[in-house]
Design brief:
heteropentamer, A alpha/beta, B alpha+beta, C mainly alpha, D mainly alpha, C: mainly alpha, MetI-like fold, two-stranded antiparallel sheet, 13 helices, globular, D: mainly alpha, binds adenosine-5'-triphosphate, binds magnesium ion
Chain lengths: 388, 411, 315, 273, 411
């Protein structure tokens, strides 16, 4: 890097991914080529330690200049004023933002825009499903999964361990939303023990007890198993689905809406923000504006796979031909809800901990779903939310 | 209880460290194993104790063959050079330990209960009495409840003895038990062990490399070298009739002088002087055998067997003084003989000096020429080739008196 | 007048003489200053910071903005049932680590102490786990504990203990044992090395004396070997205790303190509070509590070993 | 006699099995074809034809870079620890000065401080010193934890150096520093090696700081690299295991070479009671 | 270069280990510091070397006060008991080290460059020559390039000497340099050090607790006890005219007997026998002062000064034999005197035994009654209270001959 160049660091967990990471770096490189006075340097922080690392760095008055957060961390960072408002950089009217953009503004100020969003839907190995067709209802789903569990294969896989608390939360949220539940009311009133939530938790438990999952296996492993053709179904986001297809050529995958009574599912919504500690806000802003241009957005969406970006970008026919299941994911967009307790976003990490803990008690400790969620509700109201 | 070793050999791998040693001592003897470092003294002792196996040969104790028994089956006590006291036990416990072990049952290993039982044995009247009598005998009563590390060297030594005595074993084995003490204490403890032997009896086997200890304590000395026995006899035999030049020079300070000489009939020729052999002296027979009637020998004379006279007087040997040292009541004078070889080593490497001791302060000076008279009252003759004793005479030829083994007059 | 009345002492062992006092004041200063300064900057100052944090309410995202809350953090911790679990888990973890790794280490050391062909190689090989990086160890054990394809599951199935699919790392009753197995595998070689070294210090004469006195093997061990190695074992206990109190990477990578907090030790709890809940104040309080426990353990150790020394007449 | 011998031999073999098995298993796993990884019956032997996994591990991940970084950190930590520890170790062993006890206690204290506890304040210091995102920063942070141990061990060894040798050097006209460098250090070389190993391991293994202080890809160390596979999306198990083996092997081999010194150092050093 | 200690005192904290010691030796003397373990010998030597500071008092070397100088400024060489060779350097380096240090610059600490310079000094003709001449003198030439651990005890000893000699210091200080060697080698090295002193001259200060070493090597002996000087004189003075009972019993093996006696005019009464004092004997004056004309003294007699006679004969003292030990050329006999107290310790704790040595093998038996003749040829008289010598006579009263300090006839 020659002197005089302004260096902007950009952290995103994607950079650590096999495949997508390299393509994303190449995408950043096109900006660098076009702007000789600025160099955007990708910072690779693995997904598992992304939040802790970034927060430590931000707390220590440092950190990357541009950060792609997951939604929970985004709210925490905004609450702590660790990221800058960027209303001066990104003007609402200039871009054709998707509907998810509403979550990017807090108290009327914009703190970022969606870098990527991804919907959740079911992916499945048709070859492993008896009959080859995806389930429509939850009962059907359980029966099919049970039937597919044989010869060392599993019908379904999801996360249910503390070690993967984050992923567990997303999987759980899908069940809860799928049964019509929400973590909280829009005004922030917690509803962790509402009947719908409890029904979702009960369903989670049903799956857990049905002996159709490779218990204790972590996501990396069961996804691997999935593309080795050992797992019939999973509910996962589009980004993952993209990776699975790119790896698992031998087992063409298909997608279908999640087999729940309600269409709502969680979504990945990852805002890109500017660190409040940055010394190069100008340059960072320039990069962000560059990335919002339709062409860059188009490229970004393509390389991210079954995900959407900040503005509405139509899928190209080639893409659809290569990955016919994209339609299923795209169709889910209107039903995607961020996997956070609305109004309680800043407390998300602790809330997740409490809820996951209680659900684990349901799964493993034999506690009734209702009792556990009552306890979660109690703890969250009395302990988490009682804090200043 | 007699101790008998029969053709005992010990090898460590290819290395033979004890080579076919046989010896036998009767009841109540005090056998000393003497020799330079590494000659195998400890190894013999450890084989008797059962701490090493024998490679071949047999060991008998009181007529019973023991060499296949484990140490605990041999009824011997061992006193180690470093005493090997149990550091975390009081003196009382140390002494009582062998007695407790004698009554040990496997379930004493069970933590609390076992400890209770052990304490009970320790406090039983017999054990207590025995320990206290032993302590009393060794003047340890006052320190019974102290730990070894708070004791002086001499006291530790006595605790080690106590631990050995309390078992009333049939043999006491001691491996250089005094070598950790300073000179003064060593002298005192020497006498104590001797007296212990006289009091309690039994066989003692005592390892040392200190000739003074060996001479003053042993009733029998086995002098070893490189794993083989050089001489086995009473201290007096060993001093006065050393079996070979090695023994001759090992025993006695300063060591015996070995002077090149030739025996011819009843005379011995040293350099140019011809001295008559005294009555009753044994003469070498080898010379006779060789037909010449002459035998080349080393004439062994203790440093006190010389008289210093003015040079050239009578039959004296000519020499010059090379060193004068005054040691208390006597002076030691090195004299370089002219034209006469002497041996400073058992292997006969030649020099030409002799060491002479004279009583009182000698006024001689280095470089002075002197004459040396040889007094052939007691002397030894050694074959120059084999180094074996071939003749000589003891100051008082005790073997003819039939008093072998009665040298220690203390009883 | 007995000959022993004025017994000269056995020659004292060479007194390690402190160097004479002619070194000026600056010599020690010059020798010690760099490291003292270094430790002050990189350990002392952060420690003070931590203490200060522990009496504030501070977010990880904005550590410069404190709200002083006094000992509120500590009070809440002490009332928090989750924290009670943390203390319980930490205690179990530490005690089992100490007992098992020392027990196993002792066993290994005793095995490796005797003479047998290939002893040198065996001594070297047995210490391999100690050289393996904890991250790698955690990974392989996670795989071995895998519910479907892990060796432990296969083994349990083979032995008929489970019908398969036992979720070792995610079953509240198995997670801590699984973590313990991993930890002990890593650290027992260290104990065995230390104990082995201590065993070399057992005078062979003492063993032989006990044998001649008629002691059997176990008695020899209790009468001679154990007293000699006890100080080393005691120090080992201290070190393993302190290290167990602060062990992080293995546990974090394997369970992150779960399931249901069953492997949530002090350090894991500290880390989670700091980096997941972003609550630096509370996390610092947890750290200080841990530190106090470590210091108490240390003092207990010194007190006990002093007492033991007194009892054996060393002082 | 024979019976106890075989019994001991069997016990030793069992012990070695326990000690070595997990690493062996790691190796086997790394060389198991991925479709067989998820089969219900485990394969106990490596499939040697899979050896390409190792080549892949180098090409598909930044393993080479990670190892180099780890090596730099480990070597730097070792050098700095020893450089810093020699003089205070000597002072603790030989000199009388005020605050000696305090220094001794402070050194022990560091053994009680979890890295996780200090990482936040240290981050702050590092920001101010511009040490973030540098291997030097990692070296400095690691050294803070190794210097006390190394000092301890060296002190133990220096205690064992007869003071007469030093006095001889003083009479021969050597300065204090000269004594330490020219006389004492060569004498404790084996312990120095032991201390070096311990510092090296710490640097090689360290995880928390490396994860927090380094955000630049090209500066990532192997511990973080390997840990990043945990909970990741899609890296195959056998690649992870291969990386694990490659990461573990240098440490183990290095250790086997120097283990004699380590044991000696332990004996003479701080650990002996 | 004369060495002078003036009222030197040394305390470690509250403990005074050297109490006001003054002594002075002239050029080329061989001063031996003698005394039991812990009496402070090493401490004095280390103060002279500068390894310890003095608490008060002064030390002068060749008229120059040195007690405030650092060790390297005093121009002394020190030979340690354990030799303190640098184990990682070859013999050559060990010997050259002091020479290198003499030319040392601070920047020699810089790794590679420093080593280069050090090597250059080492290879310079002067240093090389000096080292080789020294090695030659000590017969070390062949081992110059070996490391100390491959050398025998005697060779190491000589390397240590070489390292001291090469600097050509004005004083050689040696702290028990022979105590690590075995008896045989010790005797040989004793002679070597004596000869070294004769060859190179200069002051030697030599610490030992072995009286034989002190007597044979020293031209002056300073006998210490508990940090205070007991006697300072030539070996002969100390042997023949011990200043007090402590010295009397410290020097000589077996030690001098101290027998309760009373001096009255020209006679001394021991028990019931009254013996005339020989001509030229000093008599105590204290008795005269006390007005009674009698003084109660300890009569100091060496073991050889007795004759054993049948009981009751002449003026002999009556006693019974309690122990007979045969030590080479003489026998040691303990005799319990009837009704006469003796002192076995310098502090006069009473017993009633004397130790008698007679030449040859004694046939006496324990329990036999004997008479003891006292030969008052050389004896000492000590005050019973203070223990100080108050009279006596040397075998040949050398002090009157004006030959003090000329005892060592080797030159
Ligand atoms: N376990 C062993 N393995 C091999 N060689 C041994 C062993 N024990 C002793 N030796 C060798 O046997 C020889 C005799 O040893 P031993 O200990 O009996 O000598 P020693 O006469 O007692 O000597 P010291 O007076 O030094 O104690 C020595 O050369 C020694 O090296
Ligand atoms: N550094 C020290 N601190 C405290 N006391 C000491 C120190 N050095 C020596 N002493 C004490 O001073 C006394 C004299 O010691 P020193 O070493 O001079 O005796 P020594 O005559 O040389 O004895 P040895 O023959 O055993 O070497 C001893 O009581 C010793 O314990
Ligand atoms: Mg021996
Ligand atoms: Mg001394």
């Amino acid at each position: 890097q020659s002197p005089g160049k302004t260096v902007v660091t950009f952290a995103a967990s994607h950079f650590a991914e096999v495949g997508r990471g390299d393509r994303l770096k190449a995408w950043v490189e096109t900006f660098n080529k076009a702007n000789p006075d600025i160099e955007v340097k990708p910072v690779t922080i693995p997904f598992s330690s992304f939040a802790t690392t970034i927060f430590t760095q931000m707390g220590g008055n440092g950190g990357p200049d541009i950060v792609r957060f997951d939604l929970p961390e985004f709210y925490a960072a905004v609450a702590a004023k660790s990221v800058l408002p960027i209303d001066d950089i990104v003007k609402d009217g200039e871009h054709n933002f998707t509907s998810a953009d509403t979550y990017m503004k807090i108290d009327g100020k914009r703190y970022g825009f969606a870098f990527d969003t991804a919907n959740y839907a079911m992916v499945y190995n048709a070859a492993l499903l008896p009959g080859g067709t995806p389930p429509k209802t939850f009962e059907e789903f359980v029966n099919l999964a049970k039937a597919a569990t044989k010869d060392g294969n599993y019908g379904y896989a999801y996360r249910a361990t503390m070690a993967e608390r984050g992923g567990f939360w997303y999987d759980l949220t899908n069940f809860v939303y799928g049964f019509g539940g929400r973590w909280s009311k829009p005004d922030g009133t917690p509803t962790f023990n509402s009947p719908e939530v409890v029904a979702g938790v009960a369903a989670y438990k049903t799956v857990y007890d049905a002996g159709m999952t490779p218990k204790g296996t972590d996501a990396a492993t069961y996804r691997r198993m999935f593309w080795e053709g050992k797992v019939a179904m999973e509910i996962d986001n589009g980004g993952v689905a993209t990776i699975l297809t790119s790896q698992g050529k031998a087992h063409p995958i298909s997608a279908a809406p999640s087999p729940f009574p309600h269409k709502e599912q969680g979504m990945i919504l990852a805002p890109v923000t500017i660190n409040a500690n940055t010394k190069v806000k100008e340059a960072a802003g320039k990069f962000l504006r560059w990335s919002l241009q339709p062409q860059q957005q188009q490229e970004l969406q393509t390389l991210l796979g079954a995900a959407n970006v900040a503005i509405t970008v139509e899928r190209t026919p080639e893409e659809l031909a290569a990955m016919p299941w994209l339609k299923v994911y795209d169709a889910q967009t209107p039903n995607s809800v961020p996997a956070l307790p609305q109004g309680l976003e800043t407390k998300a990490p602790e809330i997740q901990q409490v809820v996951v803990q209680q659900v684990l008690k349901v799964l493993q400790g034999g506690v009734a779903p209702q009792a556990a969620m009552d306890e979660a509700q109690r703890q969250i109201t009395s302990r988490v939310l009682a804090q200043k | 209880m007699a101790i008998k070793l029969e053709n005992v050999t010990k090898s460590f791998g290819a290395l033979t460290v004890i080579d076919n040693v046989s010896l036998e001592v009767g009841d109540d003897e005090f056998l000393v194993l003497l020799g330079p470092s590494g000659c195998g003294k400890s190894t013999i002792l450890r084989m008797i104790a059962g701490l090493e196996t024998v490679s071949s040969g047999q060991i008998h104790l009181g007529g019973k063959r023991v060499d296949q028994l484990p140490p605990s089956g041999r009824d011997m006590a061992f006193v180690f050079q470093s005493y090997a006291l149990y550091p975390h036990m009081t003196v009382r416990r140390n002494i009582a330990f062998p007695l407790i072990m004698r009554q040990f049952r496997w379930w004493f290993h069970i933590p609390v209960i076992g400890d209770l039982f052990k304490r009970r044995i320790e406090n039983s009247p017999e054990v207590r009495g025995l320990v206290e009598r032993t302590a009393d005998m060794l003047a340890l009563t006052k320190v019974l409840d102290r730990h070894p590390r708070t004791l002086s060297g001499g006291q530790r030594q006595r605790v080690a003895l106590g631990r050995a005595m309390v078992r009333q074993p049939s043999a006491f084995l001691m491996d250089e038990p005094l070598s950790n003490l300073d000179a003064k204490l060593r002298t005192a403890m020497r006498a104590e062990i001797t007296q212990l032997h006289q009091r309690v009896g039994g066989n003692f086997v005592y390892v040392t490399h200190d000739q003074i200890e060996a001479m003053t304590m042993g009733t029998r000395i086995a002098l070893m070298r490189d794993g083989s026995l050089q001489q086995f006899g009473t201290p007096r035999e060993i001093y006065e009739k050393p079996a070979n030049t090695y023994v001759a020079r090992f025993i006695g300070t300063p060591p015996m002088n070995l002077i090149e000489a030739e025996v011819e009939g009843m005379t011995v020729r040293v350099g140019t002087s011809v001295l008559p052999l005294p009555d009753g002296a044994e003469r070498p027979v080898s010379g006779a055998a060789s037909g010449t009637g002459r035998s080349r020998v080393w004439l062994g004379l203790r440093p006190g067997a010389f008289g210093i006279v003015p040079p050239g007087q009578g039959k004296s040997l000519a020499g010059t003084v090379t060193l004068v040292e005054h040691v208390g009541a006597e002076s030691l004078i090195s004299v370089k003989l002219s034209g006469i070889r002497t041996a400073h080593d058992d292997d006969g490497a030649p020099t030409d000096e002799v060491m002479v001791s004279v009583p009182g302060y000698s006024e001689l000076r280095v470089g002075e020429a002197v004459g040396l008279d040889c007094h052939l009252k007691d002397f030894s003759l050694f074959d120059q080739d084999s180094g074996l004793r071939v003749g000589g005479r003891a100051a008082e030829d005790f073997t003819t008196n039939g008093r072998v083994g009665a040298i220690r007059t203390a009883s | 007048m007995s000959r022993t009345a004025n017994q000269p002492k056995a020659r004292p062992e060479a007194v390690p003489r402190a160097a004479p006092l002619d070194h000026g004041r600056w010599v020690p200063a010059f020798f010690v200053a760099p490291v003292a300064l270094y430790l002050l900057v990189f350990q002392g100052y952060p420690l003070i910071q931590e203490f200060l944090l522990s009496v504030t309410s501070t977010s990880l995202l904005d550590p410069t903005k404190h709200a002083f809350v006094g000992f509120e953090n500590y009070r809440e911790l002490l009332l928090d049932s989750e924290f009670h679990q943390v203390l319980r888990v930490t205690a179990i973890y530490t005690v089992v680590c100490v007992l098992a790794s020392i027990g196993l280490g002792l066993l290994a050391a005793l095995l490796l102490d005797g003479a047998f062909p290939g002893r040198g190689l065996a001594r070297a090989l047995v210490t391999i786990p100690w050289a393996a990086p904890p991250v790698a160890a955690a990974l392989i054990f996670v795989w071995m504990f895998n519910a479907q394809y892990g060796l432990f599951s296969h083994l349990a199935q083979f032995l008929g203990l489970s019908s398969g699919g036992t979720n070792w790392l995610d079953e509240p009753s198995y997670a801590l044992p699984a973590i313990l197995i991993t930890t002990i595998w890593q650290i027992f070689p260290f104990s065995s090395v230390v104990i082995l070294a201590a065993l070399q210090g057992v005078p062979s004469e003492l063993r032989e004396a006990a044998v001649i006195d008629g002691a059997d093997r176990l008695s020899v061990f209790r009468a001679v070997v154990w007293p000699t190695i006890r100080p080393s074992v005691a120090l080992l206990t201290l070190l393993i205790t302190v290290w167990s109190l602060r062990r992080f990477d293995v546990i974090w990578l394997m369970t992150q303190g779960g399931p249901l907090g069953e492997t949530n030790t002090l350090v894991i709890d500290l880390y989670r509070r700091a980096f997941v809940y972003l609550d630096l104040g509370r996390a610092a309080a947890v750290g200080i509590v841990g530190l106090v426990i470590a210091i108490l353990v240390t003092f207990a150790y010194f007190w006990l070993s002093l007492r033991a020394e007194k009892a054996s007449g060393k002082r | 006699m024979i019976k106890t011998h075989t019994a001991r031999l069997i016990a030793v073999l069992a012990l070695l099995g326990v000690a070595a098995f997990p690493l062996y298993w790691m190796f086997v796993t790394s060389l198991t074809p991925s479709e067989q990884l998820f089969s219900p019956s485990p394969r106990m032997l490596p499939t040697l034809s899979q050896i390409a996994t190792y080549a892949d591990a180098f090409t598909e991940t930044s393993l080479r870079l990670w190892l180099v970084n780890s090596l730099i950190v480990a070597v730097g930590t070792t050098a700095l620890s020893i450089g810093l520890a020699v003089l205070p170790a000597y002072a603790l062993s030989r000199l009388d000065f005020r605050g000696k006890l305090l220094l001794g206690f402070a050194l022990f204290m560091t053994q009680m401080l979890p890295e996780a506890m200090l990482v936040v304040p240290l981050y702050d210091i590092f920001t101010q010193l511009s040490l973030l995102n540098t291997l030097l920063g990692l070296i400095l942070a690691n050294t803070a934890f190794t210097v006390p141990v190394v000092t301890w061990i060296l002190k133990g060894a220096i205690d064992g150096v007869p003071s007469e040798i030093e006095e001889a050097a003083r009479i021969d006209g050597c300065s204090r520093l000269g004594i330490v460098l020219a006389v004492v250090l060569p004498l404790i070389a084996p312990t120095l090696a032991a201390a070096a190993v311990i510092a090296f391991f710490h640097g090689w293994n360290e995880y928390v700081f490396a994860q927090t202080f380094i955000s630049d890809d090209t500066l990532r160390t192997a511990s973080v690299g390997l840990a990043s596979f945990v909970g990741e999306l899609s890296t195959p198990v056998h690649t992870v295991m291969a990386v694990g083996i490659v990461y573990t092997l240098p440490a183990v081999v290095f250790y086997l070479f120097v283990q004699r010194y380590v044991v000696a150092g332990m004996t003479s050093g701080g650990v002996k009671g």
